Amino acid sequence: MAKHLFTSESVSEGHPDKIADQISDAVLDAILEQDPKARVACETYVKTGMVLVGGEITTSAWVDIEEITR
Questions:
Q1: What are the contacts of 52-55 at 24+ separation with CB within 8 A?
Q2: Which residue range or ranges hold the S-adenosylmethionine synthetase N-terminal domain (predicted)?
Q3: 9, 11, 41, 58: least CB-packed within 10 angstroms?
Q4: Domain residues for 39?
């Protein structure tokens, strides 16, 4: 019989991981709205007073990432 280990992580509202996920999701949504065939691998890093959005994005769309982040 095979054993499987299941783990999960939960963070509360306002946690930097949640904020980072919301920003990445918003960037993805904005790009896909203009270019449904876009390829998006967006990562967001949050630290006090700073947000870094990066990754690989192949698209014909233009989105204002700074505006989305704010």
A1: 53/23, 53/24, 53/27
A2: 4-70
A3: 9
A4: 16-69
